[in-house]
Design a protein that fits this description.
- Pfam families: GDPD.
- The chain has 485 residues and is α/β, with parallel strands linked by helices.
- It has a domain of 303 residues: Phosphatidylinositol (PI) phosphodiesterase (TIM Barrel, Alpha-Beta Barrel), CATH 3.20.20.190.
- 36% of the residues lie in helices and 13% in strands.
- It has 17 helices and 15 strands.
- Strands 3-4-8-9-10-11-12-13 form an eight-stranded parallel barrel, surrounded by five helices.
- The longest helix is centred in the N-terminal third of the chain and has 26 residues.
């Protein structure tokens, strides 16, 4: 009897456990599978970072594709192909829209299909290579106390306490500048095709530290994925002994007129303190010697004899990086350099608009081998080579698509989001002229058939305009009288 009761009790417990388990299974909702974004077949030809989801996205992308463009996941408009751009386009300090000395500046430039990305490296007091342009803090990077420090007197621990500055708002970000090794690793992780890293060396250092730098680049990026530039020939000469095959670019100083314009802008108060720090080396040089003295000390290497000496010192895989003003004054420098197996790159001290305006004056054969710019590849390629001219092979069906296809050739797709706000009004943003009407209405001029009476001497008479003095019917307004108590 006892055994039967025990067995019944045992089976009751088992049954209760099973019921609880089943109840628990029913009460726990089965998570629904995450929706899988399937790329429409019409957009399968687009790059992997293209947006493929959203309202009328197929029509939008095909409308952009008719202009050799596409909408990327980050909201930027990018070029489908840069094959028409017969120029090596280098991102000056990474993407100009991102904070300097940040990993984002490198990644964004790579994703925007720049041919190369230029970064600046210098040494701290403890011998650490870091990604930084200015010789002191205060402009792009700020110490938490607000004090300014020379980088060659900082340790890496102090450098790690710096904050980056947002370029658009000037606000400090909760991000720190990166060390050179972090920049190299970031570049290696995100580069594609034949993109290269242009490492501009800002510190005067010995061969041992240059060997250390070159070893890091070989380890993380590999030969062929990077090259060097510097304003110091001796630094480049040492690097040639360390790395016999790497490209070396010698940076010629800014043209005296460019320096004078910088100094004039500063005196007028047109620019702020950040502007001064950005061009500190050139401005202090001009201030110390005076612009006339700077002009007398300025060395030009565009002559054939100077290029020959430079080529003998740095080797055939080398080049001259020029202020665009110097390049425009010596248009045959490219021909001379090419005869020696050298390259010519241009940069500007007076802004990217001036740089582009000068390049626009040149024919394709006269262009330099490359340009170091603060602009997008789209803007350079479109302005110089019409690389995103509409083909008019696609007929859009949506409002956005029709707006895209209606835009003239000079539409600024770097400001695509902003431009969409004008689609109902029939306006767009031009690459050169700001806000413009898509279709300029023709002005109908009505001829005046009434002859103007002339006096004997030939001048027209002045006649008074006929004024209608009729005031019409009289209107009488009656106001209620005030009632007295």
């Amino acid at each position: 009897m006892t055994s039967r009761v025990g067995s019944r009790y045992f089976y009751s417990i088992i049954l209760a456990v099973l019921l609880l388990t089943l109840t628990g299974c029913k009460s726990t909702p089965t998570p629904s599978p995450k929706p899988v974004n399937v790329t429409p077949a019409e957009l399968s030809h687009l790059p992997t970072d293209a947006t493929t989801q959203g309202l009328n996205i197929i029509d939008t992308q095909l409308s952009l594709g008719d202009r050799n463009l596409y909408l990327a996941d980050n909201g930027n408009i990018k070029m489908l192909s840069t094959a028409q751009c017969q120029l090596d386009i280098s991102a000056h300090r990474g993407d100009f829209r991102q904070p300097e000395s940040s990993a984002n500046a490198i990644v964004s430039a790579l994703n925007d299909n720049f041919n190369s990305v230029e970064i600046d490296v210098m040494l701290l007091k403890d011998g650490t290579w870091v990604n930084h342009h200015d010789s002191q803090t205060g402009r792009a990077t700020v110490y938490y106390t607000g004090e300014r420090f020379k980088l060659n007197r900082m340790s890496f621990q102090a450098f790690s306490n710096l904050k980056l500055r947002d370029k658009q708002t000037n606000n400090l970000l909760d991000q720190r500048p990166i060390a050179a090794v972090e920049a190299f690793k970031t570049f290696a992780a995100y580069r594609h095709n034949n993109q290269q890293l242009n490492v501009e060396i800002k510190s005067d250092t010995n061969g041992q530290k240059l060997v250390e730098l070159d070893n890091m680049l070989r380890k993380y990026i590999g030969l062929g994925g990077f090259y060097y530039s510097a304003a110091d020939q001796e630094i480049l000469y040492k690097l040639r002994g360390i790395n016999p095959s790497v490209y070396l670019g010698f940076i010629q100083g800014g043209h005296p007129t460019s320096i004078e314009k910088l100094a004039a802008d500063l005196r007028k108060g047109v620019k702020n303190d950040a502007y001064y720090l950005d061009n500190q080396q050139n401005l202090e040089l001009a201030g110390r010697y005076g612009t006339k003295r700077y002009r007398s000390r300025y060395k030009d290497y565009t002559a054939k004899s100077s290029l020959t000496k430079l080529q003998k010192k740095l080797g055939s895989n080398s080049g001259l990086h020029l202020d665009i003003r110097s390049f425009m004054q010596h248009p045959r420098v490219s021909y001379r350099a090419h005869q020696l197996g050298m390259k010519i790159y241009t940069y500007s001290l007076n802004g990217t608009d001036y740089h582009q305006s000068q390049l626009l004056k040149l024919t394709t054969d006269q262009l330099p081998d490359g340009a170091i710019v603060d602009a997008t590849p789209y803007k350079i390629c479109q302005r110089l080579f019409n690389a995103s001219a509409p083909q008019k092979r696609y007929h859009a069906s949506s409002h956005v698509g029709r707006y895209i296809t209606s835009l003239p050739q000079d539409a600024d797709f770097d400001r695509f989001k902003e431009m969409l706000g004008y689609q109902t009004e029939g306006y767009y943003l031009s690459l050169t002229s700001g806000l413009k009407a898509i279709h300029s209405a023709a002005v109908n001029i009505v001829p005046n058939n009434i002859p103007t009476p002339l006096l004997e001497h030939g001048f027209p008479t002045i006649t008074d305009e006929i004024i209608d003095n009729d005031t019409g019917e009289t209107i009488i307004l009656r106001l209620p009288s005030r009632q007295t108590n």
